[in-house]
Design goal:
single chain, alpha+beta, 7-stranded antiparallel β-sheet, 2 helices, 7 strands
Length: about 110
Amino acid sequence: MKHHFYHVDFARLEKVAVEVFKLGFEVTDAEEVEFEDGGSAWVFDAIREQSLDAESITKDAIKLEALAQQFGVEYDGWGTYFEGDEEFGRRRRRINSRFVSVKKEPLGSFFTL
């Protein structure tokens, strides 16, 4: 299960990522994306392997959306994929109903020492 977060302020997004990590989710490296209208934002995903149980998914989504609101960032919902899904590796993602292109170079980890 992948939960999506984004915001224009990297520092604010980073604070949410730390809290999400404390909840037991794997947190992806932040990437900067460009919107079709020329704007940009930072994004990361929170990942947890789990069964497709509607009750637990809804519980997690509510908790993560509340956390995002607490820090003033956008929670963009959740998604999943089947193992072996070739589309999983694509370099485009949907954010708030707008398609964006992800810059090719990763920008580092939230958890550097």
